[in-house]
Amino acid sequence: MSLTSDPPVGKAAASDAEREDYSALKVVPVRHPWRWAAVVVTAVLVAQFAHGLITNSGWEWDVFADFFTTRTILKAVWITIQLTFYGTALGFALGIVLAFMRLSQSPFLKSVAFTYIWAFRSIPLIVQLLFWFNLTYLYKRLDFGIPFGPGFFSFDTAGLVGAMSAAVLGLALHQAAYAAEIVRGGVLAVDGGQLEAAAALGIPRLRQLRRIVLPQAMRSILPNAANEVISLFKGTSIVSVMAIGELFYQVQVIYGRNGRVVPLLMVATVWYIILTTVLSIAQYYVERHFSRGATR
Amino acid sequence: MTAMVDIRSVHKSFGSLQVLRGIDLEVRSGEVAVVLGPSGSGKSTLLRAINHLEKVDSGWISVGGSLVGYRRQGDRLYELREREILRQRTRIGFVFQNFNLFPHLTVLENIVEAPISALRRPRKEAVRAAEALLDRVGLADKAASYPRQLSGGQQQRVAIARALALEPELLLFDEPTSALDPELVGEVLDVIKDLAHQGTTMIVVTHEIGFAREVADTVVFMDDGRIVERGTPAEVLDAPSHERTKAFLSKVL
Ligand SMILES: Nc1ncnc2c1ncn2[C@@H]1O[C@H](COP(=O)(O)OP(=O)(O)OP(=O)(O)O)[C@@H](O)[C@H]1O
Ligand SMILES: [Mg+2]
């Protein structure tokens, strides 16, 4: 009896007569009794949980419904989206620059980028945000002009760095450190032969990066970048320490007034879930776009 | 005929490893030179130096009358900027052992990319030229495919078409068939033979002795960073004068 699908010809011919014929027999699949037990237990737990959510009056679903789409909450959701968008856009723009600095041949650029990444990954975001918020205390005026020389324009920092821009700045600078490493990882994952072929064809340097390297790097950048965007999105709740009216802050303000903590936390939670879902769906389509040519 | 490629006492080391130890070689316009030699003898390094993918330590290389990687002014050689080097490379086609096609671009996009971005050809014109080239390498129906959807032999033919799209005056092939299954080698060699018959100047590194015998005007045998022997296929392949050439040929034949 042979396990291969095409047995050696000579042997098969010799033993043809004595080979058994299994084709008429019925196939019985393997049974998994423990799997069924686990399914039953889990189903009971899920049902209990759902039952609790619906029947326990502590959740106060009526309060939830009242507040879910009020103007204040919608405005707060919009601010959260803005923080995420600007934080991501600026963070990744700076991150790409830092990544290419780290990949460059210049020891100076390399070490500046390395130091930046080291510093911003070391300082907790919340500490950093409070620093930015108190920028006025550190630098009273910003001067634009010849470095170390006379200034042409100047601003009072109090007017320049409002709470919102301080928050965006903090989120973006923090994000840039992580984005840089993600982009660098993606670029390193592109086969060196690709750049070599592009160079051999005389394709201009910037075009090599934009047209050949980055689209291929995107495949490994995207899953990590999506993680970052989603965690930044939820991380915006930290900004509530700066009294910015984003979702989590606004919810706190409201339950501070009416004392309905649980349903209002649920308002925030459900909004976070909805928007994360939207981001995940977007991720799917963006990844699909960049996987062109990746499979047969 | 004039020298298309002129290589003079080229030396190159990687750290303490001397890879090229004084290479002198001339390839005339329209000539097909086949470079043979054992692994590690410096064949790839030499080809890459001709295209300035590798900078030489001393000596010089000129292609089509202009120095590769440098500009002469009076009694000085100025190193070219990257942009000028890139422009020089558009006159030299390079075909890699591993094809190095761009996997995220279709076959057609692979071919038109350099003419459009490096030579600033109008897209329409580049596409028309690319279609003609695909036809020439027998892949007219694969324009919209992605490289991974093609066999190795087809990919290498696309890579050749991509190199030809710049209308180079010199073609360099680095073991164009070594990554291919034996039954696919023929289709790629046929394309290269065609080019040879049309008078394209090329330098081909290969282990295909039969191809060398049939197509080469000159066979060059390299060993340990030096050119040991050069001559017509009949001279080098059938009546080698050096022991090392004999030893090598007895192994590959
Ligand atoms: N970038 C590099 N850094 C260090 N050593 C290198 C580098 N490129 C090539 N070498 C070394 O130089 C020597 C010659 O390499 P080369 O690739 O030119 O050989 P080859 O004749 O093409 O061999 P093969 O037939 O195996 O392709 C080898 O010993 C190789 O290890
Ligand atoms: Mg080689």
Give the % helix of chain A: over 70%
% residues in beta strands of chain B? 25-35%
E-strand count of chain A? 2
Q: Describe the largest sheet of chain B.
A: 6 strands, mixed
Order of helices and strands of chain A: HHHHHHHEEHHHHHH
- Average per-residue pLDDT of chain B, rounded, comes to 93
Number of strands of chain B: 12
Which topology of chain A does CATH recognise?
Answer: MetI-like fold
Bound molecules: adenosine-5'-triphosphate, magnesium ion
GO molecular function (chain A): transmembrane transporter activity
Transmembrane segments (chain A): 36-56, 76-101, 113-133, 153-174, 229-249, 261-286
InterPro entries (chain A): AA_ABC_transptr_permease_3TM, ArtM/GltK/GlnP/TcyL/YhdX-like, MetI-like, MetI-like_sf
Family (chain A): Belongs to the binding-protein-dependent transport system permease family.
Task: Name the features.
heterodimer, A: 296 residues, mainly alpha, 72% helix, B: 253 residues, 28% strand, binds adenosine-5'-triphosphate, binds magnesium ion
